[in-house]
């Protein structure tokens, strides 16, 4: 899998997420400033609630823009010997089934379809990301979520 194409696919998904956030922020701002939300008495909090929503949506837009910036600035390693940011890692589960992960600076949990492959973005803040950090091909990756322990072997790092 070409990591430049993968990054472009991820950026397309993040830009779509940004477009939705911008649209939601605009609608929330229109609602907050609409004549219908003007308080009729001191206990009428519709305008206040609408302004809180508009503020939250504006923060969401900023977060989306930051994710896009981080992904654009991500340095993609050519042939990493260990798991680092920008690595494309294939893990084998106990049934020898391969699972593909991309170590990203943000957007952990995002599922991406690139060509015929499906993968998930993982950050080093996640339990799986922490367990994979600096591991090499052949190393075992083990982490727990709640009472369940996951165990994988690293098959490849690109």
Automatic annotation (TrEMBL):
One of its GO terms (biological process) is regulation of DNA-templated transcription elongation. Pfam families: GreA_GreB (PF01272). It comes from the Bacteria. Keywords: Elongation factor, Protein biosynthesis. GO terms for molecular function: DNA binding; translation elongation factor activity. InterPro entries: GreA/GreB_C_sf, Tscrpt_elong_fac_GreA/B_C. Residues 81-157 form the Transcription elongation factor GreA/GreB C-terminal domain. Gene3D superfamilies: Transcription elongation factor, GreA/GreB, C-terminal domain. This is Transcription elongation factor. It comes from Vibrio aquaticus.
């Amino acid at each position: 899998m070409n990591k430049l194409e993968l990054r472009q696919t991820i950026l397309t998904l993040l830009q779509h997420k940004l477009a939705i956030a911008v649209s939601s922020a605009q609608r929330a701002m229109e609602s907050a400033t609409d004549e219908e939300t003007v308080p009729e008495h001191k206990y009428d909090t519709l305008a206040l609630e609408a302004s809180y929503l508009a503020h939250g949506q504006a923060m969401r837009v900023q977060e989306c823009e930051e994710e896009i910036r981080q992904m654009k600035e991500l340095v993609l390693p050519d042939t990493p010997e260990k798991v680092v940011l920008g690595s494309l890692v294939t893990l084998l589960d106990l049934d020898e089934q391969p699972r593909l992960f991309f170590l990203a600076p943000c957007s952990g949990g995002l599922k991406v379809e690139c060509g015929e492959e499906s993968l998930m973005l993982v950050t080093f803040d996640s339990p799986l990301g922490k367990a994979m950090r600096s591991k090499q091909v052949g190393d075992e990756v083990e982490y727990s979520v709640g009472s369940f322990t996951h165990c994988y072997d690293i098959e490849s790092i690109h």
